[in-house]
Amino acid sequence: CPSVPAKGAMMDNRFATALVIACVLSLISTIYMAASIGTDFWYEYHTLSPAENVSEAGRSIWEEFVSKDADEKTYTDALFRCNGTVGLWRRCITVPKNSHWYSPPETDMTTNCISFSLSDQFVEKYIEPGNHNSGTDLNRTYLWRLQFLLPFVSIGLMCFGALIGLCACACRSLYPAIATGVLHFLAGLCTLGLVGCYVAGIELLHKKLPLPEDVKGEFGWSFCLACVSAPLQFMAAALFIWAARTNRKEFTLLKAYRVA
Question: Which end of the chain is more exposed for a tag (fewer CB within 10 A), N or C?
Answer without folding.
Answer: C
